[in-house]
């Protein structure tokens, strides 16, 4: 099974909301999805806000996976 990936490196904070929301809804049949946020706590927070608003079940990476968010499904 292939996971779809959204890499947010180079994306400005004000663009995150629309990009993440579109990515999740357009690819909801292809779960799990991976969103690469990098080491920016601000970027991670912005992505989590979109996912929570969208009622998504997701996992925050830790350790060597810090900066990744895996979206498992929409509720």
Quick structural gist:
This protein has 75 residues and is α+β, with helices and mostly antiparallel strands. The chain has 2 helices and 4 strands, in the order βαβαββ.
Can you describe what's shown?
The chain is of the alpha+beta class. It has one domain (4-74): 2-Layer Sandwich (Ribosomal Protein S8, Chain: A, domain 1), CATH 3.30.1370. The chain contains two helices and four strands. The protein has helices at residues 13-26, 41-53; strands spanning 4-7, 33-36, 56-60, 68-74. A four-stranded mixed sheet has the order 1-2-4-3, with helices on one face. The longest helix is centred in the first third of the chain and has 14 residues, at 13-26. The radius of gyration is 11 Å and the shape is globular. The model has no long low-confidence stretch (mean pLDDT 93).
* CATH architecture descriptor: 2-Layer Sandwich
Low-confidence parts: none
Largest sheet: 4 strands, mixed
Shape: globular
- Helix tally? 2
Sequence-ordered SSE layout with sheet pairings:
Blueprint (H helix, E strand, L loop, with lengths): L3 E4 L5 H14 L6 E4 L4 H13 L2 E5 L7 E7 L1
Parallel strand pairs: 1-2
Antiparallel strand pairs: 2-4, 3-4
Helix pairs in contact: 1-2
């Amino acid at each position: 099974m292939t996971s779809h990936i959204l890499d947010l490196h180079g994306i400005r904070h004000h663009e995150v909301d629309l990009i993440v929301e579109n990515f999740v809804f357009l690819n909801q049949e292809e779960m799990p999805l991976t969103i690469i946020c990098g080491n920016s706590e601000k970027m991670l927070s912005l992505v989590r806000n979109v996912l929570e608003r969208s009622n998504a079940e997701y996992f925050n990476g830790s350790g060597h996976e810090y900066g990744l968010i895996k979206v498992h499904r929409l509720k």
